[in-house]
Amino acid sequence: MPLFVTVTPGTTISSTTTLSASTLNLLGTPSIDITGSVDGGTLSVADGSLTLAKFASISGSRLIGNGNAVSAYPAELSSTDLAFTASTVNIGTGAVTTAKLADSSSTTTGVTYAKIQHVTDARLIGRSAGTNGVAQEITVGSGLSLASGALTNGILRYTTSAKSIPLIASGSQAVQWLTTSTELPSLSVAPQMVRVVLECFTNDGPFVVGNEVDIQSVVMQGFQNNFPIFNYVPTVSSGVVSGSNIFLNVWFSSQTPGNPTPFASASTSRLFVLTSAGAYQELTRANWKVKAYLLYASTWA
C-alpha cells in the first residue's frame, strides 16, 4: 500500500532512510491512509479507534450480524418483524402472531392470565354476538352468582337419603327427614319444589333395581274379601319447624284409614302403580324405598 507522509522542513529522506519509529517522530505528525496491505509488514488498528462513520454504508432498515449457524463474517440482516427508526428498533405492530407464541406446557411458557387485559369483576369471558369474533365479557344472569372463583345459581338441589316404607303394622306411617338430624339443608324457608319417588332396591315384577316411580303415580288400595273399598294416595308435606330447621314428611295409609271396619292385615293397604299398559301393578313394600329431590334457595320468600 502507498505510504504518504508529511516531511518536516530540514529533514532529508533518501532511498536508504529507514523509517523507524524515532525517524517518523522526527517527521512531525504523519497522516496514514489504510487502503490495503503493507508489503513486507503489517498494520493494526487499535481497539476503539474507529467510529461508526468509518464503516461502509449499509442498506436501510438492516442490522449487522451473523445469521448463520457457524462462525462467519458480519453481514446485513433484514427482518419482517422489526420496525426501524433512525435511533431505535422495536417489534413491529402486528408482528407478534399466534404462530410465534409458545404453546403453554408449563408455568413458564405461553401467555399467562396476567398478560390479558383487566376483566370487570363478576364477569365471564365468552362471546354472545351471534357471529364469530373476539372474546367478550359476559354478564352473569339473574339467579346466578360469581364469587370466589365459583359460578353458582340461586336455586340449589338436594337429594335425601333413601328410607324404607313403613310396614302396615307400624304405629307411624310417616317417612320423615329433618334438618336437626342433618338429613336436610338448613333453610329459613321450605323448599319450593319437592319431588318424592319410590326407588326399587330389589327387583320387583317388571321393575329392576334403580327404577324410580313418582309418588304421585302410586295408589294404596284397601281390600275386603278381595274387593277394593278405599284408595289412598301417599301425601307429601314440608315446612319450617323453627328458625332454619325444615322437615319433609311422606305419609302412607294406616291399616284401615277412615273406615271403622277392621280388616285382616294381609289384605289391606296394598301398593299399586299404573303401568304403561294401563293396568295396576302391585308393588312389594320390602323391595322399595322412599327418596326425595328438593329445589331450594335461601332467598326465596
Which SSEs are present, and which pair or pack?
Elements: H1 21-26, E1 63-65, E2 75-77, E3 82-84, E4 89-91, E5 123-126, E6 136-139, E7 144-147, E8 150-153, E9 156-159, E10 163-164, E11 174-178, E12 193-200, E13 212-214, E14 218-224, E15 227-232, E16 235-242, E17 245-251, E18 270-274, E19 280-283, E20 288-296
Antiparallel strand pairs: 1-2, 3-4, 5-6, 7-8, 9-20, 10-20, 11-17, 12-13, 12-20, 14-15, 14-18, 16-17, 18-19
Number of helices: 1
Proportion of beta-strand residues: 25-35%
Q: Ranges with pLDDT <50 over ≥5 residues?
A: none
Bulk shape:
rod-shaped
Percentage of residues in helical conformation: under 10%
The overall number of domains is 3
How far apart, in Å, are the first and last alpha carbons?
A: 104 Å
Quaternary state reads single chain
- Could you state the order of secondary-structure elements as H and E? HEEEEEEEEEEEEEEEEEEEE
The counted number of beta strands is 20
